[in-house]
Amino acid sequence: MQKTVPKTGIFIFDQGKRLARSIDLDAVIQRLARIKNVIRCEVLTDLAAPLPSIKEDFTSDKFNRIFWVGKFSDYQKKTIQSELSSAGLNPYMYEWCDLEEQGIGTKGVDSGIQTQKAIILIQMTLARTRLLEPLEPLELPAVDASLIIGAGVSGLHTATSLIGLCKKVYLVEKESGVGGKVASLHRLYPRICDPRCGLEFEIQKIRESDMIEVHTLSRVKSLFGSPGNFDVRIEKQSRYVSEEKCNACGECMKVCPAVIPEEQRSRESAFINETSQQVLNSLKSDKKAIHPAVPMTYPSTFVIERQYCPPDCRECVKACPALAVELEQTSSELAFKVGAVIITTGWDPYQLSKVDEYGYGIYPNVISNLEMERLLEDPPVLKEIGFIQCAGSRDERHLHYCSSVCCSVSLKQVLFLKEKLPDALCYIFYQDMRTPGFDEELYQKVKSLNNVIFIRGNPSTVKPGDNGKLRIHAEDTLSGKEIDLSLDLLVLAGGMMPSQGSFEIAQLLNLPQNNFGFFESHLQCHPEESQRTGILVGGACRGPMNISQSIESSHRAAMEVLPFLNRTILIEPKYPVLDLTKCDKCKRCMEECPFLSYVFDENGFPSLDLTKCRQCGNCMGICPLIAISLRNNTIKQIAAQVQAIKPSFISKEEPVILAFLCENDAYHAAQSAVEYGLPVPPNVFFIKVPCAGSVNNALVADALAFGIDGVLIAGCKDGQCHYVKGNQLVKTRSGDLSDKLQKMMIDPQRVRFESLEIRDSKKYVELVKSYIEELRAMGPNPFKS
Amino acid sequence: MPPKIDREKCDSCKAEKESLCEQICPGDLMTLDEDKKAYCRMPRDCWDCMSCVKACPKGAIETRIPYQLGYHVAKLIPMMGTNTITWTCIDINGKVERFQYINRGMLE
Amino acid sequence: MAEKIPKSLNEIQTEVIETDLLIIGGGNAGCFAAYEAKTKNPSLRVTIMEKAHISRSGATAAGMDAINTYIRTDKGETPEKLVKWSRAQVGGGPIREDLALSNAELLNETVELLEEWGLPIVKDEDGHYKLRGRWDISIQGEQLKPIMAEKAMEVGAQVFNRVVATNLLMDGNRCVGAMGFGVRDGKFYVFHSKATIVSTGGACGIYKSPVTDYSGAHHQTWMCPFNVGTGYAIGIRGAAEMTSMEQRWIAIRTKDFCGPVDTISVAFGCMITNAKGERVMEVRYKDVGGDKAARFYRLNAPMTEWLEGRGPTYVDTTILSSEEAKDLREDLLNERPSFVLFLASRGHDITKEPVEIYGSDPYIVGGHTGSGYWVDMKRMTTVLGLFAAGETAGGNPNKFVGGCAVEGRLSARGAVDYIEKTTLPPLDTKQVEKEKERAFAPFMRGPEFDGVNPMEMEERMQRLMDEYAGGIHQFYRMNEERLDHALKNIKMLQDQTKYLYAKDLHSLMSAHEVSDRLDVAEVLVHHLKYRKETRWPGWQTRMDYPEVDPNLDCFIESVRDPKTGEIKIFTRPFEQLIPGDRTKA
User: Fold this and answer.
1) How far apart are CA A232 and CA A279, in angstroms?
2) C150 touches chain A (CB under 8 A)
3) Predicted confidence (pLDDT) per residue in C532-582, tens digit
4) d(C-alpha C585, C-alpha C582), whole Å
5) Do residue C153 and residue A584 have CB atoms under 8 angstroms apart?
6) For residues C56 and C231, is the Cβ–Cβ distance under 8 A?
7) Chain B partners of C142 at a C-beta cutoff of 8 Å?
8) Is the pLDDT reported for residue A1 higher than 50?
9) What is residue A267's predicted lDDT score, i.e. its pLDDT?
């Protein structure tokens, strides 16, 4: 280990002589000049003039690191940085120390105290600067392709966005054809268009592109590797029909003897009447064992569901003019590399049979809203139809959330139904009609139709009526009247739940899911994230949403994927480094990393995937042996900053607080407190950290051992931490330390965690003030010498 | 001598293959019981080096002097910093004493 | 963690590790040996075999508060003077002055290395290491062991923690490695190495400790109770020559706690007093140096006072100011922190009441007295390819932390030279199979075996040695008949190790520990019998031969015949290199 002697230049930029008004700059310079290896230490009132001599001193190796003290505009910072890098100074070899953001210059504070504080603040930065190392960003090669799992409306739109940008795509779909749930819808509102039209538009782009491989009847078998370099294996089921030869002429279907049996739709055959028989007929599909791809016929190759074939039947083989039927096909595996993954596995309808009171699966004329879409193609003559909203949604027993689209869907269905059956009587049972935005118009339209009745209240148990009709009893909560109805058809507006495919992928890739089973993403700021770098989510697998929202979501995911598809990925060099001589493989860093960026290497040591790492420092915070440090933000550097604080600088009795402020929220609160001129007491020194979770207990122990009276760790509120749970991790840890302090007969409140939001400047000042009061009452830290 | 474990604080070091106290004990005495909580398999064999006390990230372990040699109850609690260690000693009469020094690095 | 008892040896996995240098025992000497070997020759494969975890194993587990040997050349001290002092501390010897001199010459550099690695050493105003005694310097050594362990790992030594050594791997008269078992993973390990350094520390627990009870305090010993003399035992079984085993290390210790007294007496100048308030050393031991008398005199002082009715004896801490008392305890926190807890558990204010002292149980430690392997100037033992370093190496007393570190480096140099000139013969699979069976035998017998558990045998042996071979309850006194009785029963116990059973791997380790201790005890008793004189009262008080016999002014050596098990005892002459009165420092 080569040891470079750290030679530092300190430049205090006092534009307009602001600092000189609050502190004795001469005393500061004198004090600093006495420190070993501080080569230059001076006050500048202008930037342009001194820069050449600074560059000169650097190139002649008079000093090898610099820090700047003062307030700089972004322009000034950029200028300094570019001037110095042109002289060859590594951009990671300098620091900035803003005295004013720490409260220097606050009115009403004694100038002597401010000067002392300024000296300490500069010494703190000096302690850090001494341990800086020149760093270079890393470039890691990346594969210029992505994997999209699920070819529904989201998957298709994501694919076309990416191929439009000339990025290779592997689109994997478990069904035999693309299209997903949207392909099985009847018409969309407001254009009353066939959803397949929009899907076909995207499919056309895919047909014409040579940048995409579509694999249907396929599932992801394994995914290993890291962002920029994932190794994917997929398993393709056999179609038993050749993709090269089949031209979808349909001759095979004509001779196929096997019809795929329908699932029993009703348990009670006694309830079949003419109407319900018609309903059943409308919902029948009469699919043969050999059939075109479903839901949409892309790829155009037919597919055979062999489990329905009669034994030894080879009728299709004989009938096919292109000799395309290949009954000996076996499933195959495919392996390829991608730079990123987008999951668009969509949704499944909630199993309405679980909502026992409505009789789905018992009575043939109780159907779901999805089935209604099929029925609307060619509805039988129905006189009275009921719609029950929130069937199995917003319900503690079923889906706790609102599925957001069902109200608009039911209204749309009523609209189409009335066009086909103008005399039908429609009842809509609702709790709240939720038609946000422009769908309000749809609501008004339907309300104005004849024979459409809205009843606010949910029916009780559906019972069989006369002649196969359904008996409904409900209370209209607005009028207080009881209603009894006899319906031909009941449509349950069922909700959207995460699809089976979503669950499978979550297990396979170890992706966090929220309470409802949807992929856990940061809803406000990063809805397309999955908390695993390089894996993004789009569409309804994230949560219930309508088609245009799905499409928007998928475009966003496509955008976010682009950085992983560049030829190289640039890694900021401030990533964590592990000291293997200290590590005892306790695995806490692996457990607590919010992004699962660590895996065990072949010797059992944690090994970091640099492309997954978000450089939050939580591993540095948790390691009980302080074996992990972020580069140029190491434990040693922070410890040196802590130990540079003089706890009796105001007086022996006056308490001193060290605050660790998370740079996403708490730091800004402190900074803006000064900008608003709030009276920040001089007792507090703060150190900016990437996340509150990066604060290691050993640093807090240092602070207390060196006599600092109180340590404040300020981070985000629960649920708001940008690194998922950094604030919770440090809360628990510092709580353990407080418990130890109590055993040591030291007030446990000498270490505390507080949440601060970005604009909580008033709260910050009040926090500090009340903490000072408490510490005054506690008396000085017993370790204060 | 017997290390005393606070079973509520002990988190079994995430029930890893070896908890931190188990990893470090020079006498191979610390291990996890059936409830995955740390315990000393033979308290009379402990040498009080306090390595387990220092290693525990939850602060769940405390050293006690065996009653054959000392009265109930005195406490000695180490707190590890990055290059410092502080000790707090509380004797049987409640008198508190504190010690603090650098344990890594060159002294001036 | 419950382990499955294997039904056959085939179920036990054997791991063979090929390496250049094997270091058995990753302590002070072991880590320094690894550092030296790797620094001298970075391409060398260096493997450390450690039964605990090198970060906190062995005698320095809690830390150290002093390095007892450092040569302040600015004050006119020299390596020769250090050797003279060491010689006087053991009553004039005999000692291996050649080993002592070569050690002293590398001493300062080695201690300075430790500071470079991060060990805080207390300095005076001029920046020199501050003396607290003639040779002793104060360190804040709570992290001493982790610092050394990290360095050994940093230079690339391959570390096997939790592997217990059970025997050397031999090729005729050459040691080609060692064998043992994993106390956590239950595997059988075979290290096949060109050279081996044995640095396992000394032997504790051969004798009964003065405070042992069933429910607690069994391991309330000054020395680390986990150092059981395995290093000596494997050498003895490998027909290595041992020297000066009769020179047992016993020193005054704080009573009951059995903790170090050096800090209190040397660093803070607290003198030995008795219940009558007399300055014992000045009053009764003036002719042998008073307070500066050799260590065995200082050991005998409290024991004699106690016997003659003037006890208890103390080190008089009442002379200390409260600040000094705090500094004293801060020092002890670096070495035996629980001593501070001990004082607190008695509400003992040492400025008001002095600290009571007493002797300790006898230990065999070559870092403090001269017991251990007979080595040449390259630190090679009489077994080819086997080197000894630290407490395991004999003939050179008063090494302590600094000297043992030097031994680590010197033995590594010797080993590296040896490695460069040799090749490794093929592995003797028959020997390996035989040792695997021997190593796992108690475990294979299982917990239901109608036999003896290791704890019972250990207590039996300790009681036997205590009563018949000069233990503390006998005020260290022994005579021929008692020694014979001890020997007879040791041999019975050795034979009865075939009844030892172990219920888990930890218990298996205990079984091996007791059988290793028995092998050391056997050799020890032979040495005690042979030295028919009392040269160092306390360390070896022969009631039947109370005077010094000038014919025995030599080293007493032993070798065990590997086939018959017979112990051959002989002598080697003493060579004085540094002139002058041997009893004067």
Assistant:
1) 44
2) yes
3) 999 998 898 999 999 999 999 999 999 999 899 999 999 999 999 999 999
4) 8
5) no
6) no
7) 85, 103
8) no
9) 60
- Residue in B55, B82, B96 closest to A626 by CB: B82
Q: Is residue C77 part of a domain?
A: no
pLDDT band at A778, cuts 50/70/90?
Answer: very high
Q: What's the rounded mean pLDDT across residues A187-192? A: 82
Chains that touch B (3 or more CB pairs under 8 A): A, C
Q: Which residues of B are the active-site residues?
A: 47
Domain total of chain C: 2
Instruction: Output the pTM of the full model.
Output: 0.84
Per-residue confidence (pLDDT) for residue C1, from 0 to 100: 42
pLDDT in tens, A246-255: 988 889 999 9
Structure tokens that stand for C118 in this block: 């991060």
Give the Cα separation of A558 and A672 in Å (integer): 36
CA A83 distance to own-chain centroid: 39
Domain coverage including residue C537: 429-551
Report the pLDDT averaged over residues A8-33.
Answer: 88
- Specify whether A460 is located in the same domain as A388: yes
Give the pLDDT score at A266.
66
Half-sphere exposure of A247 (CA within 13 A, CB side): 5
Nearest CB to A580 within list C53, C55, C153: C153
Task: Say if residue A579 is in the same domain as residue A548.
Answer: no
Cα–Cα distance for residue pair A239/A345, rounded to 1 Å: 21
| Residue C450 belongs to a domain | yes
Two structure tokens written together for B32: 């996890």
Residues C440 and C538 in one domain: yes
Instruction: Residue A705: give the domain boundaries.
Output: 634-785
Q: What are phi and psi of A202, to 5 degrees?
A: -70, -40
Region of poorest pLDDT, from A57-61, A134-138, A304-308, C172-176? A57-61
Specify the CATH number for the domain of residue A59: 3.40.50
pLDDT mean across residues, chain C: 93
Q: Do residues A238 and A330 lie in contact, with contact meaning Cβ atoms separated by under 8 Å?
A: yes
> Measured between beta carbons, which residues in chain B are less than 8 angstroms from residue C329?
89, 97, 99
Domain boundary among C318, C335, C358: C358
Question: Which residues of chain C does B61 touch, with a Cβ-Cβ cutoff of 8 Å?
Answer: none
Give the ipTM.
0.95
Q: What are the tokens at C35?
A: 């550092």
A580 with C55: Cβ contact below 8 A? no
Q: What pLDDT, on the 0 to 100 scale, is given for residue C240?
A: 96
Residues contacting C251, CB < 8 A, separation 6+: C222, C261, C295, C298, C299, C359, C360, C368
Q: Which chain A residues are within 8 Å of B86, Cβ to Cβ?
A: 701, 704-705, 783
For residue C329, is it within any domain? yes
Question: Who contacts A648 (Cβ-Cβ below 8 Å, separation ≥6)?
Answer: A654, A656, A707, A784
Residues in chain B: 108
- Architecture per CATH, domain B1-63, reads as 2-Layer Sandwich (3.30)
Mean pLDDT of chain A: 90
Residue C82 lies in a domain: no
What does the pLDDT look like over C332-357, one tens digit per residue?
Answer: 999 999 999 999 999 999 999 999 99
* A305 and A330 assigned to the same domain: yes
CATH number at A600 reads 3.30.70.20
Other Cβ atoms closer than 10 A to A472: 24
Amino acid at the residue C379: R
Contact yes or no for C216 and B43 at CB 8 A: yes
C252 is written with which tokens?
Answer: 């005054």
Of A564, A589, A606, which residue is a domain's last? Answer: A564
Cα–chain center distance at B37: 15
The three-state secondary structure class of A472 is strand
The continuous run of DSSP H or E covering A114 comes out as: helix A111-130
In this predicted structure, the answer to whether residue A457 has a pLDDT above a threshold of 70 is yes
Distances from the Cα of C307 to the Cα of A225, A227, C258, C301, angstroms: 75, 78, 19, 10
Of A98, A129, A132, the residue nearest A685 (C-alpha) = A98
